[in-house]
Amino acid sequence: MAEKVLILGLSKSGIAAAKLGIKRGYEVYLSEGKSEVNQEQIQELEKLGIKVEYGKHSDNFIENSAFVVTSPGIPPKSEIFQKILSKNIPIISEVEFAYQNTDIPFIAITGTNGKTTTTSLVSHILNADFSAPVCGNIGIPPSGLTDDELDFLVCEISSFQAQMTDSFKPFISCWTNFTPDHIDWHGGLDNYFNAKAKIFLEKQAPHYAILNAKDEKLLEFAKKCKKSKVFLFDTEDYPNACYIKNEAIWFKEDNIEEKIIELKLCPLVGNHNYQNIMCGIICAKLCGMENETIAEQIISFKAPEHRLEKVRELDGITFYNDSKATNPEASIVAIDSFNNVDVALILGGRDKNTDLTQMCKSINKHIKTVFLIGEATERFEENLIKNGFNNIIKESTMEKAIDSAIELKPDIVLLSPACASFDMFKSYEHRGDVFKEYVLSK
Asked: Is the pLDDT of residue 415 over 70?
């Protein structure tokens, strides 16, 4: 008799896991707590022999399950989670289920920030020589790719997915950085860290572990990764590393050094993005790629839209769209990416009333002129002046701000608003599109 498996959640990952379960001969039950569901999806699943319920999690669906595959959206403290655990039924993530049912090696990428860009970049580089699609927390759930003819699965892993693994053992595990996040979900900062750490330690230790040397917590953690060959990025002080030297990015393994790419050729700017590139280079080298091919793929990579996205160069001015920066912390990352150049910054929108002190400090250090638009204009102007920055120009529209900035002939025009978009635009995407369309029309 077939083993019974329960899938929690009618999400993309839940549907993919349910279909994989049927393919592998399990008796599959899918339980969705929400009442509003897509009936066509349910009919399609039922035609495959999957039993589906919604609006509840019934005891009948839970009973006699060999294990449960959970959605990342269901927190461990939820009632259904606790009920399953009380019955001593193992709970795993969809990523773990996919891993158990394929021979395709995984490249797992986790971190608080930067993992989406890094995952996309690693996939882009590898796809020159291999078939290595993006999956996991972005893209297709890996359960939907287990039977494809692929060389690697480049999988973005959230802390939720990592926590619910037991045998998941990637070929390469990367950790971009660690800052406080998702504390409520995990019930504390240590739990959040330990969730990510699982895919680097003990029986889940990867063949290769890649860690950020500039993150003190991860640099210390690297000492615990004794079952993996460890590579660090953004440091020269390690035998296996990737780093910046003489305006280029270099790679070394066992202290043998190779130059990979000039910084000026990289389409992504800012140290956070150089770190993403370093991580991608290490992955590519460990998969056996040639330096020239790696460099070509980095040059051809396009940044995710609205994230410090290079739009064009015009008459010596380079335009960047960072519309996704909807709070001061995000704008600081963009502002700090530019050193010793004349930057005109477009700020403003719907104010979130967050503290502006640190952003003003960054502006004082890196920005020559600030253009203010939108509802936040008065408070932003007041805070900038209070913090010693006075080169401020107020404009009524995005287009007027761009025109005024061009007249000053800076090196860089940067849209990084530090605000929500809803005073003047439908979304941050709409705001970024307006910026790009106007700049490209010049």
From this structure: yes
* Span of 184-188, 297-301, 409-413 with lowest mean pLDDT: 184-188
Which tokens go with 274?
A: 């150089």
Tens of pLDDT, residues 262-302 = 999 998 888 888 999 999 999 999 999 999 999 999 999 98
Say how far apart CA 5 and CA 274 lie, in whole Å.
Answer: 43
Note the pLDDT tens digit of each residue in 196-254.
Answer: 899 999 999 999 999 999 999 999 999 999 999 999 999 999 999 999 999 999 999 99
The whole-angstrom separation of Cα 210 and Cα 254 is 15
3-state secondary structure of 346: strand
The pLDDT mean for the chain works out to 93
Where would I find the H helices in 67-212?
A: 79-86, 94-100, 115-126, 159-163, 183-186, 189-197
Judged by DSSP in three states, 178 sits in coil
Check residue 153 and give left, alpha or beta (phi > 0: left; psi -120 to 50: alpha). beta
In a 10 Å sphere around its CB, with 0-12 CB exposed, 13-18 middle and 19+ buried, how is residue 51 labelled? middle
How big is the chain by its Cα radius of gyration, in Å? 24
CA-to-CA distance for 46 and 169, rounded, in angstroms?
Answer: 32
CB within 8 Å of 149: residues ≥ 6 apart: 131
Concatenating the DSSP letter of every residue in 57-85 gives --HHHHTT-SEEEE-TTS-TTSHHHHHHH
The C-alpha atoms of residue 175 and residue 195 are separated, in whole angstroms, by 12
Contacts of 35 (CB under 8 A, 6+ apart): 54, 55
Cα 214 from Cα 233, distance rounded (Å)? 8
